[in-house]
Specification:
Length: 126
Amino acid sequence: MKIINNSQLENIQEIQDLLKEFCPFAKEKMGFSEYPSNITFQHDDENAAKLLGKTAHYDPQSRGITVYVTNRHPKDIMRSISHELVHHVQNERGEFDEKRDMGEGYAQRDEHLNQMEKEAYTEGNM
């Protein structure tokens, strides 16, 4: 798994060290067979300024995770990674195989995607 640092985090090494411990644990606990292709730590001042800005997302095509890290605590960053790893498991199970509208409000419009988000919150954030 490749770590891409597009951030200005001063404690990036600490977070990377946490990931080295967390990812094998998550792989065993969640049951994914392969690690995501990459985890990108993304700096984004404009997003960070929004009250409901993006925290992270998973790309099922590239199998990569992007985490928006500007002005966020490391615990919150790790929680976002855990959430996105559940989406990675869902991808391995084929739950992203059917083309679906992933635009704004997708989880409210699509029952299947709503259930996927519920699983990610329950499994990844607890």
